[in-house]
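sorry for the late reply, my laptop died twice this morning and i had to redo everyting from scratch. anyway the thing you sent over, i finally got around to it. pasting the sequence first so we're on the same page, its 298 residues, then the predicted structure underneath. double check i copied it right bc i was rushing
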Amino acid sequence: MGEVFAGRYELVDPIGRGGVGAVWRAWDHRRRRYVAAKVLQQSDAHSLLRFVREQALRIDHPHVLAPASWAADDDKVLFTMDLVGGGSLAHLIGDYGPLPPSLVCTLLDQLLSGLAAVHAEDVVHRDIKPANVLLEATGTGRPRLRLSDFGIAMRLGEPRLTETNLVVGTPGYISPEQMMGSEPDFPADLFAVGLVALYLLEGAKPDAKALVQYFAAHGTPSAPKGIPEPLWQVVATLVQPDPQARFRTATGARKALAAAAELLPEPGPDDELIEIFDQLGPPPPALGPPRPLQPPPR
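ok and here's the structure:
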């Protein structure tokens, strides 16, 4: 039997790592199902405060993977989420390279839908990147995306947990205004979505610094090879260096994306079929099916 938290969550096997803790597959003995459990590994006050902020988020949306419950035992604490097994967008690009524009539109639409729900709660994610966008293992069916990892997210007006001039986020997906120390705001998340879109379309991490410099010096460039012009106009608006020149909301970007998608050609019969595999696999066989917890002896 693995370690059990609060008489309910049994840790089975590690499946990932977040900013302040490890992520485990765990068996929920009360609901009789597997969940993902993020376990805080650092006990300093700063990490604990971030952890508390993250577990307090309750955003119920099909394209958001937010904490669902939490538990504590002695000096350890965890929160749980749905178990999502199809890997991240980074896994998908690793398997297939550049994705068809029609599939990218589907994925971006779902990402913007989830982000709109996050922003509706006055929350700025601050760390949108391919590794934080997870996928259900849907095989060759319609993909289902989940925006995850709210470890450095914050509500508008909430006090920062870092010094004002300290930049947080993942290098390569940080907006120009964040780099200059501006207060977190929704357009910074939209800039990151634009960079994720380029990553999906080109199959490689975009050079954000070079992109910003080109836009600033020459304006919006023509569409890169392989990216349809209507889709490029949406992506280019997302990655404008000036936040005032971007879409103001995720919903506005989603509407523009839908209009662009209508202008794209239908996928052809010779296009590669994209399959989203189960990246987790079954639980370790040595453990067997989790057994009901036994009451302590009287």
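The chain has two domains: 4-81, 89-262.
thats about all i looked at so far, will dig more tmrw
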